[in-house]
Structure formats: structure tokens, C-alpha cells
């Protein structure tokens, strides 16, 4: 089992500006040791013949071909708008700020 000391965890907590109690430091030291051991065991199994992957099953793009179709003109798009200004949709302000 990897040795992650309470002092190691305290140092990391200090760097991350995380306040931890003595009990939390002890608990976290044990938990981090288990994580490091788990990663080490996986590293032993994954040899040079095993390619690094982000997913165990190959992903494929399921999107359709990007083809330009019929589009609305600016006038058509704005024809149903309750309000428009300078060729754009006009909506109520939500931040009380003028842009």
C-alpha cells in the first residue's frame, strides 16, 4: 500500500487553501493511499501493447451531414417578432444595464 502521510495531505490542503481537521487529514491520507494503489495496479496491467483510450468502446459521429438547406430571410425571421430594432429581435432588458 502506498504511503500517503497525514503531513502530505496537510501540505496539499495548505497549497489548495483547504482547511481540514485532524480527523479529516487522517481519513484523507487513507483514502488517497487507496486511490494511488488502484492506479498503480491498473498501470501494471496496461502494458505497451494496450493503447491509451478515453473510452472502452470506439465512438462514432452520429450526426447527419452538414448541408445548407432553405433558410429564412431577415424579414421572414423578424415577421413574427413582437418587437424588432435595427434588423434584430428586441427583447426586454434583464440586467438594468444599457449595452
UniProtKB/TrEMBL annotation:
Region described as Disordered: spans on this chain: 75-99
Keyword Ligase appears in the UniProt entry: yes
Broadest EC class assigned to this enzyme: ligase
Catalytic activity from the UniProt record: L-glutamyl-tRNA(Gln) + L-glutamine + ATP + H2O = L-glutaminyl-tRNA(Gln) + L-glutamate + ADP + phosphate + H(+); L-aspartyl-tRNA(Asn) + L-glutamine + ATP + H2O = L-asparaginyl-tRNA(Asn) + L-glutamate + ADP + phosphate + 2 H(+)
This protein's UniProt keywords: ATP-binding, Ligase, Nucleotide-binding, Protein biosynthesis
UniProt keyword Endoplasmic reticulum present: no
Coiled coil location: none
InterPro entries found in the cross-reference section: Asp/Glu-ADT_sf_sub_c, GatC
Signal peptide as annotated in the record: none
EC number in record: 6.3.5.-
Record's function text: Allows the formation of correctly charged Asn-tRNA(Asn) or Gln-tRNA(Gln) through the transamidation of misacylated Asp-tRNA(Asn) or Glu-tRNA(Gln) in organisms which lack either or both of asparaginyl-tRNA or glutaminyl-tRNA synthetases. The reaction takes place in the presence of glutamine and ATP through an activated phospho-Asp-tRNA(Asn) or phospho-Glu-tRNA(Gln).
HAMAP family attached to this UniProt entry: GatC
Subunit structure of this chain's protein: Heterotrimer of A, B and C subunits.
Family: Belongs to the GatC family.
Protein name per UniProt: Aspartyl/glutamyl-tRNA(Asn/Gln) amidotransferase subunit C
Species for this entry: Tersicoccus solisilvae
